[in-house]
UniProtKB/TrEMBL annotation:
InterPro entries: Claudin, Claudin_CS, PMP22/EMP/MP20/Claudin. This is Claudin. It comes from Hucho hucho. GO terms for molecular function: structural molecule activity. It is found in: Cell junction, Tight junction; Cell membrane. It is a multi-pass membrane protein. Keywords: Cell junction, Cell membrane, Membrane, Tight junction, Transmembrane, Transmembrane helix. GO terms for cellular component: bicellular tight junction; plasma membrane. The keyword Mitochondrion does not apply. It comes from the Eukaryota. Claudins function as major constituents of the tight junction complexes that regulate the permeability of epithelia. Belongs to the claudin family. Pfam families: PMP22_Claudin. The chain crosses the membrane at residues 6-27, 82-102, 117-140, 161-180.
Length: 211
């Protein structure tokens, strides 16, 4: 089983990954306006996220508008919403499970069950990291494809949330991998206590034959 220090590091990585997932889910900075080529108007900047789109004026004023209907949203945006929320929920649950089975807590007193609990937390963190990286990468691929598409008039670039999502996903996968590597049950000592009575039981019988 992993030491308490490794588990504390995994908790810290999980918390950082959870914060990054919440930031990605809340802040509308998944894609922003690009001012390359023909787009030379810099008086305002368009920012789009999972829940709203915002227009930022050069004076600093910002106006945001939520998406009107879920059914008219593109498939990548709908998937990003669902997977990001699920990732945050799974990460929160994994951190709670890790606290229950960690060496530095006394929530579970059975030392044989603690490695299994830590392993479950590691798998949950790994899954949550994948659930965060997949929609972010999908969204980024669509942005890059539209950027190089000459038929798309308004060019958009990768926003800050894309990079935060990648970083948070890597942290979650790293935490899950560490827990899965170090959450191993201690080898039992019952295997070395086997007793062999064959020779000792046959010795008296052999002596009786020669009497």
């Amino acid at each position: 089983m992993g030491s308490a220090g490794v588990q504390i590091v995994c908790v810290a990585l999980g918390v950082l990954g959870l914060i990054g997932g919440i930031v990605c889910c809340a802040i509308p900075r998944w894609k922003v306006s690009s001012f390359t080529g023909q787009n030379i108007v810099t008086a305002q900047e368009t920012e789009e996220g999972l829940w709203m789109t915002c227009v930022v004026q050069s004076t600093g004023q910002q106006q945001c508008k939520s998406y009107e209907s879920l059914l008219v949203l593109p498939s990548d945006l709908q998937a990003a919403r669902a997977m990001t929320i699920i990732s945050c929920m799974v990460t929160s649950l994994a951190i709670l499970i890790l606290f229950a089975g960690a060496d530095f807590t006394t929530c579970v007193e059975n030392e044989d069950i603690k490695p299994k609990i830590s392993l479950v937390a590691g798998i949950a963190l790994l899954v949550s990291g994948l659930l965060l990286i997949i929609p972010v990468s999908w969204f980024a691929n669509n942005i890059i494809s539209n950027f190089y598409n000459p038929l798309v008039a308004q060019k958009m670039e990768l926003g800050t949330c894309i990079f935060i999502g990648w970083a948070a996903g890597v942290l979650l996968i790293l935490a899950g991998g560490l827990l899965m590597c170090f959450s191993r049950a201690k080898s039992g000592s019952s295997g070395g206590t086997a007793k062999y009575y064959g020779n000792s039981a046959s010795a008296p019988a052999a002596n009786k034959n020669y009497v």
